[in-house]
Every structure is written in C-alpha cells, then in structure tokens.
C-alpha cells in the first residue's frame, strides 16, 4: 500500500523494572540510539498519561505514544482535558491511543461493565472531538452523555484507536487518525488491511492517511523453545478473555480458541498454554535470532504497518539488551 507515513521503529515502555526513574533513563537511551518513538502501555502500575509528559520533558524530539488508554476508565471530559495539557506542552510529539481494553481489566480490576464496545468507542471519539474543538456539550448517546462541558479549543490532537476484529478496525479507520494493532497472527494482516481500507473509504479518506501502529512481542534469542514458553506464559491468559478469544477464532484458529477457552474455564493452566502450539506462537510473536526477526519486521512494514514497536517479553538483562540492540539504526533499517 502507498505510504504517507514514514516507517518508524519504536520501543515499548515501561522499563523491565517498572520504575519511573528506569523508564525515563531507558527512554533517553532509546532516543540517543535512534529509536523514532516510545510507546507506553497503560495496563496498571505506572499510569501512562502521567508518565508520558515526564518522558517528553526528559527527551528532545522522540515521539511518545500510548497503546492504549482504556476508554472505560476515564470520561471523555477527563481524557480531553488531560490530552490538551500534554499536547499543548509538547506539540507534534504526543500520540494518545484509546481502546476498549479487556474484561479482565475493565470488569475485574475496575469493577465496571465492558458493554457495547464499538458504540462506546464511537461515542467517546465523537464527544472528544467536540470537546477538543471547544464546543459546549449537549450529547446523549447509548453509552455516554455530557451536558454543559466546555474547554478552550486546541488543534492538532490526534486520536488513535486500538482494534482487533473487522467492525472495530473499520470504525477506527473511519473516525480516528490511526489504528493500533496487537497480538494478531501474521497471516491475517492482509485481511486486517482490507478492513482499514473499507473504513477509510467510508469516511472519504485514503488508506495511506491513516497511521497503522503495532506493538510486537519480541524475544531475540537462539533458544526459540524458551522464547515460545515465555510467550505462552505471558499471553495464554489474554486469549482466554472474550475479546481476544473471539479474535483468535476470527483469525482462523477456532480450535485453539476453543481449547484455550475450555482450559481456562477448567482452571487448567497447562492445557491453556498448550493450546498455543509452536506454529501459532511463531505466527504471532517475533522469537528467534536478530537477523530473522529483522527480516520479519521489514515484512510487517511492507504489509502496511507504519510504526513497529518492539516489546521484549522475556526481559532478562542479556535478552533485553539483545532485543534493544537488534533494532537500533546502527543494526536495522526498513
């Protein structure tokens, strides 16, 4: 597909230790060694909307994104006012991403209901666009309402949306400035890109106008078995949740999705992990020697991913360094 957005290599944060000081130090190191972007997760622990401006303040030009802020845990007014502060302080360097998150986080951690996710995201973006434009709210939707809120207008605040299955991918391409992808088998990327194009067309946009971001789960190692086990340990539980389980089935892995779902329900963690065979793990993760993974990263870029974020999922000091070093500009280019 044509590329309006440049191909970017990014590092996923926070640091393996999970501390603020180490994350800022790692951000500075990544910028110094040539990473284009730093992308924060926001799944408990360090709050990404607090940490992002701290990193921006301590770096010079690197772009900082969030993939993703759960839309259910903050109201559109809170999100709009927060994004306004960060975007005004660091223009053109901050890229906020929103997502529905998962049942584990929204219902388990926060005690909220993850209901009507597609409608919730559409209404969130509608409200935020209005708020960021400085309009006084008078909105009553199916999942959200706001009356009488107004803030000073600000231009140029992008909104990116995370998406998995077709309806959300198309909606994200239609109403957002970028689409954030995660944990998909490589074989379905062409299918995903077709839905990006369909959503863009619905809004009268060109596909190349929409930035596509992906966080890749990476382990640079010669011991693939160890790396695969690390992937299973980290993500078998993800695929047991309704959102990711349905996505895995949609991607063509119905049997694996069923086995994961049943294994998790039976509290059989070994069965759940075993339902992710080596072939499927290799389809989703980037696990292996540096040269092999560098070539895979180029394939993702050629398939339509503009911004490729490296997330080391087995962060022993040696493996983290090998993973970090494999994608610095001295060792890698698209």
From TrEMBL:
Pfam families: Bac_luciferase (PF00296). It comes from the Bacteria. Residues 16-306 form the Luciferase-like domain. Keywords: Oxidoreductase. The keyword Protein biosynthesis does not apply. This is LLM class flavin-dependent oxidoreductase.
């Amino acid at each position: 597909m044509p590329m309006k957005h440049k191909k970017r290599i990014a590092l996923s944060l926070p640091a393996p230790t999970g501390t603020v000081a180490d994350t800022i130090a790692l951000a500075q190191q990544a910028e110094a060694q040539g990473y284009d972007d730093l992308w924060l997760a926001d799944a408990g622990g360090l709050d990404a909307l607090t940490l992002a401006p701290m990193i921006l303040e301590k770096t010079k030009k690197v772009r900082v994104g969030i993939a993703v802020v759960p839309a259910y845990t903050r109201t559109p007014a809170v999100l709009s006012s927060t994004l306004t502060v960060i975007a005004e302080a660091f223009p053109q360097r901050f890229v906020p991403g929103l997502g529905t998150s998962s049942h584990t986080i929204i219902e388990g951690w926060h005690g909220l209901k993850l209901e009507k996710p597609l409608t919730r995201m559409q209404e969130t973006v509608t409200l935020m666009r209005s708020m960021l434009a400085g309009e006084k709210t008078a909105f009553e939707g199916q999942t959200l309402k706001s009356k009488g809120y107004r803030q000073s207008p600000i231009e140029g605040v992008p909104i990116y949306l995370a998406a998995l299955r077709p309806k959300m991918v198309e909606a994200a391409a239609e109403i957002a400035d970028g689409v954030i992808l995660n944990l998909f088998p490589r074989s379905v990327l062409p299918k995903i890109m077709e839905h990006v194009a369909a959503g863009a067309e619905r809004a009268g946009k060109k596909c190349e106008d929409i930035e596509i971001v992906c966080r890749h789960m990476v382990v640079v190692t010669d011991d693939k078995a160890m790396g695969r086990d690390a992937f299973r340990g980290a993500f078998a539980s993800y695929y047991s949740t309704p959102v990711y389980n349905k996505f895995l089935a949609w991607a063509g892995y119905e049997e694996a999705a069923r086995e994961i779902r049943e294994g998790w329900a039976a509290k059989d963690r070994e069965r759940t992990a075993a339902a992710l065979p080596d072939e499927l793990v290799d389809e989703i993760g980037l696990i292996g020697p540096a040269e092999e993974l560098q070539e895979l990263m180029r394939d993702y870029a050629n398939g339509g991913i503009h911004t490729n974020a490296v997330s080391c999922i087995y962060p022993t000091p040696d493996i983290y360094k090998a993973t970090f070093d494999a994608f610095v500009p001295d060792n890698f280019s698209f």
